[in-house]
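call fold(seq) -> tokens
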Amino acid sequence: MLILLNKPFRVLSQFRDRDGRPTLAEYVDVPGVYPAGRLDFDSEGLLLLTDDGGLQARISQPRSGTRKTYWAQVEGTPSQAQLDELVQGVDLKDGPARAVSARRIDEPAQLWERDPPIRYRASVPDSWIEIVLTEGRNRQVRRMTAAVGLPTLRLIRYAVGDWTVDGLAPGEWRKATARRSS
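ret:
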């Protein structure tokens, strides 16, 4: 079984929390499924859940090469040099990291409201970029954008392989076909 969930902002990518923070259990009541990879507490978007260990490994292991597409609202206006640097690679404390691709995009048309909203500052512009990775280290997109001078304000995982968050409001989920996705 494969479930596509639009994980809301400030929800843990697990089913229990000793500290009482919101978890997946508040949104998905399907026994025996587990997240295939993680999505930070402060990030939103597509989270895959499955009961198939092989599929879970294919999705979450960097060596599988599964592409993860992120939309990042960043502080500032990215230059082509900054986007190129994300692809060429940046040095993080846990080693080098590089994106498969990075490009500036318009604000996504299907974007949902976030609660609470991003703080608006008239004197500081913000923009959207799309970043594609094949690995997913802890807070990697946020650390990479900060390394090139573009702090992330909002982070949404739009796709994992061919699966997308299209048509799912925050907290909504649907079953999907567990095909091979790249």
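The longest strand covers residues 152-160.
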